[in-house]
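Next comes the chain:
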Amino acid sequence: MVRRALEQKRAITEVLSKDKKTRSLVPTWQDVDVLESIDAALSPLLEFTDALSGESYVSVSFLKPVMHLFNTSILKEAEDDTDLTRTIKTTVMGYLNEKYDDQATDDLLDMACLVDPRFKLQYTQEEKREYIKEIAVLEMLKGERAVVVREEESREEAMGDASAAVTPAKKTKQSLASFFSNRSTSTNTEGLSVQQAVERELSNYLLSPDADNDSNPLDWWKVSHKNFPRVSQLAKHYLCIQATSSPSETVFSTGGNIVTCKRASLKPDNVDQLVFLARNL
């Protein structure tokens, strides 16, 4: 709005000056200076806000890089900035740094960057990197234990079903390929505990070449999830988080358009289905 007023200030002045009743509203040079100072401070934030509010791509892992960019260049005070521009930049950066300074939030953003192959530990504080690795290892170990529990439960169910109908299984002849496949999988984890295997996989992932900044991390994981299966599960957990509340607010608006005064008796399940169709068709 401010930028549009600056672009059209000549036309605004011409229109307002033609009428005696509106001549007092003609922007003065002081008004223009204030608008230019506001525009200089806030205009860079517009594009970043729009980009972080998207919902069709990964956005949460961009918060750390964006905050780094704001602190180092975008919102850093310049020599030609006016006092008002400097005040706005300082106030905005103070608010953002305080907002994301919470320990839990900062850990979450570091984990999101870790599983993004474009950034990994690049924007994590050096003294905090080992701590983030430990958190990642612990979460992957929890996932590994959950998989083992599910496999045991399914095995018990299968054994129960098999005991109901005991029939001798036909012995199948193994192919040569099966021996090589078993051999290759066993050598990778031979002599390693589960924790050591998890730590090795994380180290190999961090040593792998970084993805291009313009690439989609989800496409990268589609190709590389077989090489890093445990880390890929961690990526699914974190990269689905939205950077802002804009997508959820859009869903709320869609729900408000569906559940109106004349349609107030809709059941919750029907509302869920209608909102889903409205957002995905």
